[in-house]
Amino acid sequence: MKKIAIIIMLLFTLVSVPAISQAADCPSIVYWDGVQLKPGQIGRVLIQKPTTIYKNVNGKFEFSRTVKPGENYRIYANKSTYYHLGGGLVIRDNADIVYQTPSKSKLSQLKCVKTASTSISIGDRKTTTAAKLGAQQKAVINEFGASTSIYHNNYNSFYAISYLNNKVASVYTKDKNYSFNGVSISNTIAQLESKLGTTYETTGNTYPIEIITYNLPKYEANFFIDVHSDNKISAIYLIDHQLIDKNPNLYPKKSTTLERGYETLLFELTNAERKAQGVAVLQSSSKVASVARTHSVDMGLNDYFNHDNLKGKSPFDRLADSGIAFRNAGENIAMGYTSPYFAHEALMNSIGHRKNIISTSYSQLGVGVYFADWTYGSIPYYTENFIRP
């Protein structure tokens, strides 16, 4: 048996989310003084005097631009002395602005719109789901041999939906408007327990808890916990037992098509995370991906797990040897995770890997995945190379 450096072994079976019909008095769009009220919006600021908007860059507020009297901006959070405009932008609470909140009736209407627009259930027809989420951005094959469609709006409201017989068989999402049995992204563990109870499994009963799994008669619900953000839910992953039955051995069979699918999905998950964290998304680089893929293959074939290869070449050496010029570069590696969802969420809970994923020092990403032979199937090796040319 190969030595497993990083691995999570969980059997995933998952969920039916009750469909919620849209009430007759639930509008498709809510307007506030003629301007659309957006999901997640809690208020607005009206600019009275020239003032500064700042950008959150790795926890520090840096100058972004100066705004003029008469302009107004949506507010999505009110924290300390700053209002958050979304996308990592903030504005200071001072005499240069006026902060206003919508009426309770407006917020009630907005909640209605949010609930209606994010109701996706296991078993829903593919055509119905596509009508709610729009055209798929990409489609890949998953470890169960089913199709996974990726939906997002410039990486906002990110969904990865697997289909079986043209019906929803699994749902992974980072959409803050999505709710499962009253549980949403950014809820705490205590809020999760208040809705679904305290009978659940965790990853090896470790602390801090990284994944909470509820075993229900016909499905499971997995909740990824962000240990670096007050132990709040960062993503929800639901999967129907019928899908699991297609691969009861857990470990996927080696396939070049599946390896490329994992690469695509991990790239998409990284950009969805960056958008959720308020930093610019990365561009895909086929040359960088080739370097990453070569390292994953090398680790898998030669049974090691390290940033430096067996010739002593570092990630920076390997990029340079491939003729890739860069000002900044970084690398994440992972091993053993049976799907990109678990690999990505685990990397986000490791502070050094997390910094690479959401760093503003990079503009391009290449992902390489290789399935190495193993007694029980195959073991995925993951490499992410980040650069700024």
At the fourth CATH level, what is the homologous superfamily of the largest domain?
Answer: CAP
- By CATH, the topology of the largest domain is Pathogenesis-related Protein p14a
CATH top level label of the largest domain: Alpha Beta
Q: Provide the β-strand percentage band.
A: 25-35%
The number of distinct β-strands equals 24
SSE class: alpha+beta
> How does the overall form come out from the CA principal axes?
globular
The second-level CATH architecture of the largest domain is 3-Layer(aba) Sandwich
Q: How large, in whole angstroms, is the Cα Rg?
A: 22 Å
Major β-sheet profile: 8 strands, antiparallel
Protein name: CAP-associated N-terminal
Signal peptide: 1-23
Keywords: Signal
Domain SCP: 268-373
Q: What does it look like?
A:
The structure is a single chain. The protein has 389 residues and is an alpha+beta fold. The protein has three domains: 81 residues, SH3 type barrels, CATH 2.30.30; 122 residues, Pathogenesis-related Protein p14a, CATH 3.40.33; 131 residues, Pathogenesis-related Protein p14a. Helix content is 25%, strand content 34%. It has nine helices and 24 strands. The protein has an eight-stranded antiparallel β-sheet with strand order 11-12-13-14-20-19-18-17. The longest helix is centred in the C-terminal third of the chain and has 21 residues. The protein is globular, with a radius of gyration of 22 Å. It starts with 30 loop residues before the first strand and ends with a strand. The N terminus is likely disordered.
